Amino acid sequence: MIALRGRTLAATLDVPLGRELWRLVEPGPAAGPDEAVIGSSAGGGALTVRRSTDGAAPGAIVLPPHLDHLGAGDIVAVSPTGSHVEVLWRARSPHNSVLLTERCDNYCLMCSQPPKERDDSRLLRRAAALVRMLPVGTAELGFTGGEPTLYADGLIALLRTTTQCLPGTELHLLSNGRRFAEPGFTADYAAVGNPRLMVGIPIFGTEPSLHDYVVQARGAFDETIAGILQLGRNRQRIEIRVVLQKHTAPMIVDIADFIARNLPFVEKVALMGLEMTGLARANLADVWIDPYDYRAGLAEAARLLHHTGIRTHIYNHQLCVLDRRVWSLAVRSISDWKNEYLPACMSCSVREACGGLFASSARHRHSEHIAPVSVG
Ligand code: SF4
Asked: Which among 117, 183, 314, 327 has the fewest CB atoms less than 10 Å away?
């Protein structure tokens, strides 16, 4: 687990910082206005960021030890007084995603980012500022929530900015899909005209009652399916996500069949294991199921979708609890900063290929059947 925020050990700034986002650079002759020098020697910029072992110095902030991993190319948000640092971009990580809002019109039983009803539009403005600072060669970028489409035109503007600044970047947006039921909104989304943009939308059933129960919102299923169909009409790239938990896992083959029959135009389906954080932990008894117990259904569903010609991936599952026939569809999907392995994994012969566990799962709940695999 890699920490991404913390309180600084010291901040000796003459005046409050005039900007929030800083790109970390090696000491050099002159740092740009959005660049902070990282290291023990000052580089002439407006801010110096020192590691915990470097100690305090005038005009500098000192990172806590758990943020000493920061280096040149990373982008951080620093509070005006320099007392807090949040990592927004890790240059060496392939898993960078940007939270746009904590608001949502669903309230999923197992949500890893429990919704909060408050104005956090500063996150949208911050995302736009971040996008302008990213290198043009950025390979991938994800936008998450909450529900980003609640911003409506604000989200469309961010997608336009991102498309202009990062034309070669693979862009992934997570959404519950409901807003796409509005033809005008989906037309605006399509008009962004970014062929590298894909939206990931969850489905939790084949009819309203199960889906609406899981997302705790009446009418959500009908809107989500209408949104997916509207996106399809506009020839947009769609990923369907199915999170497997106590209520959805027994239905996984039916859900796969529903997708194959009714939504064959989607580009990709991700069959996902639970992240044991947020509401999933709060509702543990209502959502937890051991992945070993649904492995036969998961394998059947994945093979059904795969043979239909839809790109199918299995996310967040350990190889030792998966049917070997679908190992080739399993992806190392857990972001590096929250990825862990158990002591049992140390002697496992497929560890390099296995995605391991969420740190939260390693700590709070994971399959009883995790055991080293020997492949002769
Ligand atoms: S023992 Fe660990 S590394 Fe091996 S398959 Fe299971 S979770 Fe993966």
From this structure: 117
